[in-house]
Amino acid sequence: MPALAGLGSTIAARRVQLRLTQQDLADLAGVSRSSIQALEYGSGGLRLAALVEVASVLGLQVTLESPFVADR
What we know:
Pfam families: HTH_3. This is Helix-turn-helix domain-containing protein. The chain has 72 residues and is mainly alpha-helical. It has four helices and no strands. It has helices at residues 2-17, 22-29, 33-40, 48-57. The N and C termini lie far apart (32 Å).
């Protein structure tokens, strides 16, 4: 799960940059502290909507990209 680990390290770095604790971020995003911890360690466990909310609180965006190009 390298992608999740990279996502988690980005979330953690931004949280620290904003001087938020995991509990602060959890409260602001409406998720549990253990969910933030799991996300930061690359374990996942969050619904997409919750991930988008965490990112939004941190001023980040979640972007989905497809490696496939639609035939036109």
